[in-house]
TrEMBL record:
<protein>
    <submittedName>
        <fullName>Predicted dehydrogenase</fullName>
    </submittedName>
</protein>
<dbReference type="Pfam" id="PF01408">
    <property type="entry name" value="GFO_IDH_MocA"/>
</dbReference>
<feature type="domain" description="Gfo/Idh/MocA-like oxidoreductase N-terminal">
    <location>
        <begin position="37"/>
        <end position="160"/>
    </location>
</feature>
<dbReference type="InterPro" id="IPR043906">
    <property type="entry name" value="Gfo/Idh/MocA_OxRdtase_bact_C"/>
</dbReference>
<feature type="domain" description="Gfo/Idh/MocA-like oxidoreductase bacterial type C-terminal">
    <location>
        <begin position="370"/>
        <end position="439"/>
    </location>
</feature>
<feature type="domain" description="Gfo/Idh/MocA-like oxidoreductase bacterial type C-terminal">
    <location>
        <begin position="192"/>
        <end position="255"/>
    </location>
</feature>
<dbReference type="GO" id="GO:0000166">
    <property type="term" value="F:nucleotide binding"/>
</dbReference>
<dbReference type="Pfam" id="PF19051">
    <property type="entry name" value="GFO_IDH_MocA_C2"/>
</dbReference>
<dbReference type="InterPro" id="IPR000683">
    <property type="entry name" value="Gfo/Idh/MocA-like_OxRdtase_N"/>
</dbReference>
<dbReference type="InterPro" id="IPR036291">
    <property type="entry name" value="NAD(P)-bd_dom_sf"/>
</dbReference>
<dbReference type="InterPro" id="IPR050463">
    <property type="entry name" value="Gfo/Idh/MocA_oxidrdct_glycsds"/>
</dbReference>
<feature type="region of interest" description="Disordered">
    <location>
        <begin position="340"/>
        <end position="365"/>
    </location>
</feature>
<dbReference type="InterPro" id="IPR006311">
    <property type="entry name" value="TAT_signal"/>
</dbReference>
Length: 445
């Protein structure tokens, strides 16, 4: 699948206004098979727990440090780490001290979305290789800066879309490239998740042990509320991107990969809050359409929050439409096809099933995706990454474009080469944000 992935990256690379300089003086370490890699996990509440497990599943990788603004969480993870692995691990609240630690070789980032790009940039500047959770960025401009930093500092950056390490999904992509379902003209992304009423807890004092200033980071500081910390920041614009920018990044990524397209030129979205009178700012329900008139292709994307049907058996996944049939990817690691008007079942595959990999479906292939990352780090070879930094920018960017169309309430025209909207100053404002002093994403990385 390397040729397919490389052709996708080449096709979807876009021009940047910044000049990429020659490689910096930071040397690129190449590890031998017997060299231990020291890792740090940044953000330990949600996906960070999976990062810990996946790092520890790799040969000769040691987690040296856990980092989180909340010391209460850190102490819980330290205790469970000792109980599970019979090993000690250092704790650190400030990620900048982790980047300053010369003994740390790689970091994984599972912080809230608003921290992702800046964390990647700082890590690259410090000479660290990086695994970053989806979405790679909180907005389009900082996503481009993240790509520039990985290039300038010659770092290995893997995006946490683990379905790209699924043999079954790679097999599905190859089938579409080979014309198995004919000319593929449309992709549909599905995110049907049970997202309930989160209420409105109002403001309250900052809990002891939480460095709320560090948690806020690049965002503008607001009075503390449990509506944000630790999970429900996903549904507030300053920190998250709604479910299209949460679960949905796996599916935006696969839509673009399967259609072999980059960012679109026309976008429209509609949705809102229809169920809960709670503190969420992002829409519960969102339907977006991304048009590619030059390629004669289109992406439809739908987020639903509650009682719903399945589509072709999938509630989270993708459906690709060709002129000879359809291909359905269910979740992270299986697919099926139906051919012709009579919907004759065609080829299918599943990790641990027909593909025979034995991958743990419960982890969605996270262990395998980390293994791919560590291999690339050891060889210092970006070309073997399954989810390189460009995918982090582009798949996140597609979600951001849908959100911007929703927030402006109209059809938007976008120029993928400049990564700006066409004569639309109002929409352009959503391409970046006002960064808090001390936490600015740099213009020149």
């Amino acid at each position: 699948m390397k040729s397919t992935r490389r052709s996708f990256i080449k096709k979807t690379a876009v021009a940047s206004s910044a000049v990429i300089t020659a490689p910096t003086i930071i040397s690129a370490s190449v590890f031998g098979a017997n060299d231990r890699i020291n890792a740090a996990v940044l953000g330990v509440n949600g996906r960070g727990k999976s990062h810990i497990k996946s790092f520890m599943a790799q040969d000769n990788v040691r987690i040296a440090t856990l980092c989180d603004p909340d010391m209460n969480l850190l102490k819980q993870r330290q205790k469970s780490f000792k109980e599970t692995y019979n090993k000690d691990v250092a704790l650190e609240q400030d990620l900048r001290r982790v980047f300053d630690d010369k003994d740390i070789d790689v970091v994984s980032i599972a912080t809230p979305n608003h921290w992702h790009s800046l964390s990647v940039i700082w890590a690259c500047q410090a000479g660290k290789d990086v695994y970053v959770e989806k979405p790679g960025s909180h907005n389009i401009w900082e996503g481009r800066k993240m790509v520039e930093a990985a290039t300038k500092y010659d770092r290995i950056v893997q995006h946490g879309v683990q379905l790209r390490s699924s043999p079954a999904v790679n097999e599905a992509i190859e089938l579409m490239r080979d014309g198995y379902i004919g000319r593929v003209y449309m992709a549909r992304g599905l995110v049907f998740r049970w997202r309930g009423d989160i209420g409105d807890k109002g403001t309250s004092p900052v809990p002891a042990g939480l460095d709320y200033d560090l948690w806020t980071g690049p965002a503008q500081k607001q009075p503390f509320t449990e509506n944000l910390v630790h999970y429900n920041w996903h549904w507030h614009w300053d920190y998250g991107n709604g479910d299209v920018g949460n679960q949905g990044i796996h599916e935006t990524d696969l839509c673009m990969w399967g259609l072999d397209v980059g960012l679109p030129t026309q976008i429209t979205s509609m949705g809102g809050k229809f169920l809960w009178n709670d503190s969420k700012e992002t829409p519960e329900l969102l339907t977006s359409v991304y048009n590619y008139p030059d390629e004669n292709k289109i992406i439809q994307f739908e987020v639903r929050p509650w009682c719903t049907n399945t589509e072709e058996g999938a509630t989270v996944g993708n459906i690709f439409y060709g002129d000879k049939g359809i291909l359905v990817v269910d979740g992270y690691d299986k697919y099926k096809t139906y051919l012709g008007q009579d919907r004759t079942p065609g080829k299918s595959g599943e990790d641990g099933g027909e593909s025979g990999t034995g991958m743990d479906r419960g982890d969605g292939g996270t262990d395998g995706h980390f293994a791919n990352f560590i291999e690339a780090v050891r060889k210092h070879d970006k070309s073997i990454l399954n989810g390189p930094v460009e995918t982090a920018h582009l798949s996140s960017g597609l979600a951001h474009l849908g959100n911007i169309a929703y927030r402006t309430g109209r059809v938007l025209n976008f120029d993928p080469k400049t990564e700006k909207f066409v004569n639309d100053a109002e929409a352009d404002k959503y391409l970046t944000r006002n960064y808090r002093p001390g936490f600015e994403v740099p213009q020149n990385v």
